[in-house]
């Protein structure tokens, strides 16, 4: 599956140790590189980030001020890779890795939590040292808790002028994602022996709703759904929808756009 615009893998090096609960990982790579000794390992921290858009709210492309009470994502199959040659998105799922570290189980995190900057999902304290330059994960349905049955649950409030809408958006279609190395001014994703590094799953909610601070013809806004299609479904100032009801209620163009953003 092609990497999505909405979710990207970002690999971030951390210079200090993080005091968080550990979770198990591994592994031996396809090309035979095994986990190293204690002297050759470090702590790899898996995080998820909804950016300031979710923690602080933002203006959609169609002029709605949105704030989130909750933004739950449920993640499974989380795996970080050291690849050689470096992973390229054109490869699809053909990953030539030397080392991989997998997290067992599933994890639900609330990206709207003010402390989720980013949210720590789990960590592996005996990850092989090296450069992690690819990351894959699945959005899976939560089996318990407030997000049960959903892969993504957004709950909040949208205001435009004197109009105010409370919304709960539940999406339940499971999707797999794969991203390559972070591209930026700094070298990131490097785990030194005895050190700590982060790998981050970043969630771009402006790609879903657009960004009202950007030009309306900006490619980001042209490809975004905005909030108007959801506002049109409001009853008594409330919108509560899931994938099935959106398939029935949105016009085909908007529903297909939503599907394209998510996949």
Spans where pLDDT lies below 50 across 5 or more residues: 1-5, 8-38
State the end-to-end CA separation.
8 Å
Summarize the biggest pleated sheet. Answer: 9 strands, mixed
Structural class: mainly beta
What average pLDDT do the residues reach?
Answer: 85
The dominant shape is elongated
Radius of gyration, rounded? 19 Å
Count of separate DSSP helical elements: 6
Residues in β-strands, percent: 35-45%
The overall strand count is: 15
Spell out the helices and strands N to C: EEHEEEEEEEEEEEEHHHEHH
Helical percent range? 10-25%
Sum up the structure in keywords.
263 residues; mainly beta; nine-stranded mixed sheet; four-stranded mixed sheet; 40% strand; elongated; disordered N terminus
Summarize the topology.
Elements: E1 7-14, E2 41-49, H1 51-56, E3 58-59, E4 65-83, E5 97-102, E6 106-110, E7 119-128, E8 130-131, E9 134-139, E10 152-160, E11 163-171, E12 175-180, E13 190-191, E14 196-203, H2 206-209, H3 219-222, H4 228-231, E15 238-242, H5 243-249, H6 252-262
């Amino acid at each position: 599956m092609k990497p999505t615009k909405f979710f990207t893998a970002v690999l971030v090096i951390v210079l200090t140790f993080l005091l968080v609960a550990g979770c198990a990982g591994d592994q031996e790579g396809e090309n035979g590189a095994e986990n190293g000794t204690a002297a050759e390992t470090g702590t790899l921290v898996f995080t998820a980030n909804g950016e300031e858009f979710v923690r602080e709210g933002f203006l959609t492309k169609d002029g709605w001020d949105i704030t989130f009470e909750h933004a739950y994502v449920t993640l499974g199959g989380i795996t970080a890779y050291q690849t050689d040659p470096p992973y390229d998105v054109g490869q699809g799922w053909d990953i030539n890795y030397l080392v991989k570290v997998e997290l067992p189980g599933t994890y639900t995190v609330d990206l709207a939590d003010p402390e989720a900057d980013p949210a720590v999902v789990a960590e592996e304290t005996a990850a092989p040292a090296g450069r992690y330059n690819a990351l894959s994960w699945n959005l899976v349905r939560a089996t318990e808790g407030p997000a049960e049955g959903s892969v993504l649950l957004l709950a909040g409030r949208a205001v435009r002028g004197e109009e105010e809408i409370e919304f709960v958006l539940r999406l339940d279609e499971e999707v797999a994602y794969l991203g390559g190395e972070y591209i930026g001014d700094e070298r990131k994703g490097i785990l030194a022996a005895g050190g700590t590094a982060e790998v981050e799953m970043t969630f771009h909610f402006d790609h879903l709703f657009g960004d009202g601070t950007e030009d309306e013809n900006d490619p980001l806004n042209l490809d975004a759904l905005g909030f108007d299609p959801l506002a049109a479904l409001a009853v008594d100032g409330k919108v509560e929808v899931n994938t099935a009801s959106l398939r029935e209620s949105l016009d085909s163009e908007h529903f297909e756009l939503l599907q394209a953003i998510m996949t």
